[in-house]
Design brief:
7 helices, Rossmann fold, alpha/beta, single chain, five-stranded parallel sheet, 5 strands
Length: about 180
C-alpha cells in the first residue's frame, strides 16, 4: 500500500485533487480535521488547539492506513497530515514554533510514502476559513511547506498546473 499526502498552502486545490484521485484510484481519502475543527470553532486558535489538530489528524490517518492495509488497497490518500500543521505553526506562531515542535511535531516521523506539494499557481479563493490571501504570504507558506518536506527527508513531487494538467501531474507522480 502506498500512502500519499497532499501538502501545500491553503487554496491550492488539495481537497479537490484528493477527492478526484481517490475516485480514480478506488481508495479512501482522509479528510482534513483542521478544517472541520475551524468550521466548528472558528479560526482564532492557539498553540494547544494546533497540537490537538495535529494529533487528531495523525490518529485519523493512521486508522485509515490500517483499514486500507487490511483491505489490501493499493493506495491511501491523506488530505493533510501533521507536517502541514507544523507549517501552520511556523506561519501563525513563528516566535513559539519551536515550542510547538517540541510539544508534538518532532515526535512525528511522517506516515506518507509520497507527498504531493501543490504549488500556488491557482488563484486564491476565499471560503471564509482561509487566512493567507496575499501573494507574499502564499509564497512564504509554500516555501515553508517545501522546507518542512526537505528537513524531514521525505519523498515529494511538486504539482503544478490547472485543471486536467494538475490532475495529470499528480497521477503521474503517483505512478512513478
Amino acid at each position: 500500500m502506498k500512502r500519499i499526502c497532499l501538502h501545500g498552502p491553503e487554496s491550492t486545490g488539495k481537497s479537490t485533487l484528493g477527492t478526484r484521485l481517490a475516485v480514480e484510484l478506488g481508495c479512501e481519502i482522509v479528510p482534513e480535521y483542521g478544517r472541520a475543527y475551524c468550521e466548528m470553532h472558528g479560526t482564532d486558535i492557539g498553540v494547544s488547539e494546533l497540537i490537538h489538530i495535529a494529533q487528531t489528524q495523525d490518529a485519523m490517518n493512521r486508522a485509515a492506513a490500517a483499514r486500507a492495509n487490511e483491505l489490501g488497497t493499493g493506495f491511501i490518500l491523506f488530505d493533510t497530515d501533521p507536517l502541514i500543521t507544523a507549517v501552520w505553526s511556523d506561519m501563525m506562531f513563528s516566535a513559539t514554533a519551536g515550542y510547538v515542535r517540541d510539544a508534538y511535531f518532532d515526535g512525528f516521523c511522517g506516515v506518507a510514502d509520497l507527498y504531493l506539494l501543490l504549488d500556488i499557481d491557482l488563484p486564491f479563493l476565499d471560503d471564509g476559513l482561509r487566512v493567507y490571501a496575499q501573494q507574499a504570504e502564499r509564497q512564504r507558506f509554500f516555501d515553508l511547506c517545501k522546507i518542512e518536506l526537505v528537513a524531514r527527508s521525505v519523498h515529494y513531487a511538486r504539482i503544478q498546473g490547472v485543471g486536467e494538467a494538475r490532475f495529470a501531474a499528480a497521477k503521474d507522480a503517483l505512478l512513478k
